[in-house]
Amino acid sequence: MGRADEVDYKIYGSEMQCVEIELDPSESVIAEAGGMLHMDDVIEMETIFGDGSGKNSGGGLMGKLFGAGKRVLTGESLFMTVFTNQGQGKKHVSFASPYPGKIIPLDLAALGGKMICQKDAFLCAAKGVSIGIEFKRNLGTGFFGGEGFIMQKLEGDGLAFLHAGGTILKKELQAGERIKVDTGCLVAFTPHVHYDIEMVKGIKSAFFGGEGLFFATLSGPGTVYLQTLPFSRLADRIYKAAPQSATQRKGEGSLLGALGDMLDGD
């Protein structure tokens, strides 16, 4: 795969963060389309198939199409954008977080060369980092894990940046140590962490506990990143708070309001 570009960075802000990448001449950074905040004049943009790591380019056009097509399985675009410093001296390009939360810098070389993350967490990375897909062997994990059957994997020896909602918790699990996590709150974990899905025990807990029917179990050893505010949870609260109609009940959210909705067939 070759070595990734050795970029420097600085993260700005607290709740709506951005990361500024410093590029030496001919260095590049890759990112999802639409994430760029600003860039110096001599930095050039190029839209490419896949991630530009060269991992799947050995087969020519078909190899590139295969590498890009795998990204579609994670719900991402066929294309990525490469930002390259074509000038003299150090130049800068920055990328902004899409919603309130934190940017997580990952040194893949220090993490064993691989990280598994939820499919919408990737923000940008040094060119040379491969962004692929990770199949879960357990079908239950795939269908009920909250992040779909397929997750993203980042491979290489360079810097990569993830974004997640709210506050970020980093947990170092020892061998045999096991935690249970709300499926939406899981951001990323190292490949040695065993990841599975369990159903909430007890029908009352499952339907009235407010935590959903399933939770994720993670067993060490390895590193796990968690988020306190998944975007799906934020979007759900915004949707519920928005007026649904001009005749919306004043008792919304109360037992009477819920019973009224049921009687109306809502």
Protein architecture, described:
This protein is 18% helix and 40% strand. The chain is of the alpha+beta class and 266 residues long. It has one domain: Mitochondrial biogenesis AIM24 (Double-stranded beta-helix, 4-Layer Sandwich). Strands 5-6-3-10-13-8 form a 6-stranded antiparallel beta sheet. Strand 1 (8-12) and strand 2 form a beta hairpin. The longest helix has 14 residues, at 60-73. The radius of gyration is 21 Å and the shape is globular.
Topology of helices and strands:
Layout: E1 8-12, E2 18-23, E3 28-31, E4 36-39, E5 43-49, H1 60-73, E6 79-85, E7 91-96, E8 101-107, E9 114-117, E10 122-126, E11 130-135, H2 139-144, E12 150-155, E13 159-165, E14 168-173, E15 178-182, E16 186-189, E17 194-199, H3 203-208, E18 214-219, E19 222-227, H4 231-241, H5 255-264
By CATH, the topology is Double-stranded beta-helix
From the alpha-carbon coordinates, what is the Rg to the nearest angstrom?
Answer: 21 Å
General shape: globular
What is the ordering of alpha helices and beta strands? EEEEEHEEEEEEHEEEEEEHEEHH
Uncertain parts? 262-266
Helix content: 10-25%
Tally the helices.
5
